[in-house]
Amino acid sequence: MISSMTGFARQECAGAFGTLVCEIRSVNHRFLDAAVRLPESCRALETELRQLLARDLRRGKVDCTLLHRPATAAGALQVDEATLTQLVARSTELARTLPEQGRINVLELLRWPGVLRDEQPDSEALFHAVRALFAATLKDLSSARLREGQRLTDLIVQRCVVLEELVAQVRARLPEVLARVRTRLEERLRELGGELNQERIEQEIVLLLHRLDVAEELDRLTGHIEETRRTMDAPEAAGRRLDFLLQEFNREANTLSSKSQDLETTRVAVEMKVVIEQMREQVQNIE
Q: How many structural domains does the chain have?
């Protein structure tokens, strides 16, 4: 099933560990390029989360951000009495040495590192919540990419239909165009007059018509359209194969245009290239 490389997902959860917010966004890229930003409290999970990303996503520039806001402890503040006693004693000594600048500020004492103890969250509970939240966000992202992929599929299928119609127009005009070229050549030869080797003339006309014949290009275009549909129905990632097919589409349309000896065929070839370019823009977003 076709999946886009463009998507966004956001999930949030709360518990005794605080609040977790996970955001994952992705855009198109030739390969999988993942950036995972985690708070220090969850840094140990980085390798595991990257492996989850690589398991579910094949291509795209992916930006994942996890925020952790620890819960505010209820009740009285926890003070390290031993550290505070040592700090007060040292401050008192300094106050006696510098009486003019030695007033002790209680709030400054509390700000001293280690005086107030933070209650450490349960790491297991936090990691379990991070894993669950990340998996849910990744699932939402995959769903968003699939929805966008379905929209891209519809657009490409529509353009395949347009290409088929344009190929049919050129194919229908092909006998008339070749007959017109042959007639024009024969008229010019008659204008030259004189003795001409009719057999040699016929051979040259056949060779010229063969060079101007675009039936082979039309057949290849039809084959590329069929292959595009088969690729889009396949279960595996299709972006790179479709990108290659679009290069082949463009090659055949250019050859058709260069061989054309008919104004209408040239116009149709230009329309083909416009449609092919529209398809190429859509394929750039497919995983």
A: 3
